[in-house]
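Schema walk-through. Below, the input block comes first and the output block second. Nothing else is stored per chain. Lengths vary across the set, and this one has 316 residues.
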Amino acid sequence: MHTVLAGDIGGTKTRLAIAEVSGSRVNLLSEGSFQSRDFSSFDSLLGEFLSGKKAPFSAAFGVAGPVEGRIVDVTNLPWRIHADELVRRYGFASCTLLNDLEATACGLPALREDDLLTLQDGIADAVGNAAVIAPGTGLGEAGLFWDGKAHRPFATEGGHASFSPENELEMYLLKHLKARYAHVSWERLVSGEGLVNIYDFLRMNLPGSPMRDAAAISQAALEGNDATCVKALECFVKLLGAEAGNLALKVMSRAGIYMGGGIPPRILPFLKNGAFLEAFLNKGRMRHLLENMPVRVILDDRAALYGAALRAAGAP
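--- output ---
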């Protein structure tokens, strides 16, 4: 049994917990959720969470950004996090920084069967690599390498790879976004910001159409009371499926692809209507490979927190 400090640090929300870890089981003893932009630095947020608490000896934090050595700059926040500075300030015996999607991948063993929704069964008990894709504030992607005995999670920045359109509408959408951004990545379309970008593009020729944030677009689409929102979310889901298929092929994720992040659990009716899977499978001669891969949605939004806890306790 290990008592550890774990964190899931995102551009919108940061979640911290003191947890007990036994094998792959994670029991959260104390948990706090914070709006990231309410704090000038992670250090100030962590100090608030630990106020009046005894800091565990071991800590690990999943961070939305590329980890370089012992330092990470958070992609969608003006934060720089130094593991060694945290060790000096809080007296941790060990402090690990890992990409938030790597943390999500690490957290998969802690999930129960009812924490997952299956969109495609694939081959039962398939063995091999796996992958995680997670649209939220940004678009995170990670892989899990199968070494013959266990999965070894690894981070990527695949969400920042260049977007590639597949039809005329998407070509016009790319042209529209090229006028705004120097580089149009998949994250510019498959994320909360991406859903807004798609909606704004679709409403250009609809005078009086209101501005909306991602949550409002999703809600209106799910309620079916705004045709532009419905079309925007349909487009979003197809693009998510296409990029999930890209990731699955690049990692050769025979053991499955998992969808995390804040958006997928909120749009399940659109994910289950067939458009996502058709876009996922639409890879020409490789369709048969993708048909054999399990596809699951992570319903528990604490997966990255569990993964950070497992890593803090010494899991690979």
